[in-house]
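Support request from a user on the community tier.

User writes: "When I paste my C-alpha cells into the form, the page sometimes reloads and wipes my input. The last time it worked, I copied everything first. Here is what I submitted, just in case something in the input itself triggers the reload:"
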C-alpha cells in the first residue's frame, strides 16, 4: 500500500469541505489524515462494485490530476508523475526540486572530473561523496521517505554547521572573498555551493523541512571543501 503525504494533498489545492477520491491502492499518511480532517476534506474510496468489476474511476481514467482531481486517460506533455498515477504540471514545486537535484548531480560529476584532471584525488573523492548524497536526497523526495542520518567530510549535522562558521579553526583562514584569481577548481567549488543553495530554496517551496536542513548543511560541506582546496 502506498501512502499520500500531506504535501500530496496540499498540491491538489482542494477547497475546504471538498471531496477527495482516493485511488484503490492508496491510503493517507497520518499527517495527510490530520490535514484533511482540519480542512473538512471528505475522503472517498471506489465502491465495492467498482472494485469487483476491476474498473474503479482512477483505473478507468489512467491518470489523476493531483491539483484538480480530474481523471485522464492520457498523460499530457506539460504534466509529469508526482507519485504513482498522480500527475502535476512540470512547473510544480516538487518537480522543480527534483530537476534542481538532478542538475546538481551533473554539476558534481563535472567538478569531480575536474578534480581528477587537476590531480586532486582527495577533493575528487569528496565530490563523489557529495554526488552520492545528492542522489540520496533525490531518492527520498521521489519516494516520500525521510532522509536517513548522514555525515559529509566525516562531520555530522552539528559538526558541519560549527565548522562552516569557524573557518579559522577548520582551515586556518577567515572567510575568504571569492575572486577570479583563485584556482579554477576553487571557483568551481564556490559555484557548486551556490547551486546547493538554490536547491535548498526549491526544497523550501516544496515544503520538505528535512531536505531543507540537509541542503543547508550540504552547502556548508561544499564551502568547507572549498576552504580545504583553497588552503592546500
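"...and here is what came back when it finally went through:"
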Amino acid at each position: 500500500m502506498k501512502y499520500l503525504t500531506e504535501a500530496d494533498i496540499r498540491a491538489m489545492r482542494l477547497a475546504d469541505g471538498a471531496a477527495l477520491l482516493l485511488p484503490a491502492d492508496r491510503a493517507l499518511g497520518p499527517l495527510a489524515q490530520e490535514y484533511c480532517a482540519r480542512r473538512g476534506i471528505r475522503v472517498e474510496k471506489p465502491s465495492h462494485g467498482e472494485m469487483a468489476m476491476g474498473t474503479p474511476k482512477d483505473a478507468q481514467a489512467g491518470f489523476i490530476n493531483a491539483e484538480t482531481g480530474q481523471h485522464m486517460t492520457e498523460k499530457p506533455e506539460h504534466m509529469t508523475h508526482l507519485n504513482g498515477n498522480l500527475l502535476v504540471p512540470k512547473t510544480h514545486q516538487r518537480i522543480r526540486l527534483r530537476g534542481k537535484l538532478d542538475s546538481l548531480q551533473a554539476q558534481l560529476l563535472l567538478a569531480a572530473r575536474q578534480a581528477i584532471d587537476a590531480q586532486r584525488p582527495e577533493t575528487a573523492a569528496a565530490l563523489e561523496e557529495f554526488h552520492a548524497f545528492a542522489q540520496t536526497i533525490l531518492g527520498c523526495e521521489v519516494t516520500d521517505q525521510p532522509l536517513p542520518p548522514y555525515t559529509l567530510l566525516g562531520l555530522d549535522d552539528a559538526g558541519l554547521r560549527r565548522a562552516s562558521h569557524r573557518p579559522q579553526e577548520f582551515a586556518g583562514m577567515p572567510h575568504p572573498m571569492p575572486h577570479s584569481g583563485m584556482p579554477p577548481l576553487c571557483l568551481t567549488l564556490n559555484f557548486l555551493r551556490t547551486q546547493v543553495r538554490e536547491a535548498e530554496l526549491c526544497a523550501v517551496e516544496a515544503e520538505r523541512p528535512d531536505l531543507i536542513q540537509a541542503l543547508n548543511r550540504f552547502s556548508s560541506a561544499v564551502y568547507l571543501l572549498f576552504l580545504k582546496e583553497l588552503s592546500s
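Agent notes: The reload is a front-end session timeout and is unrelated to the input. The two ends are 52 Å apart (CA to CA). Residues 3 and 27 are 5 Å apart (CA to CA). Escalated to web team.
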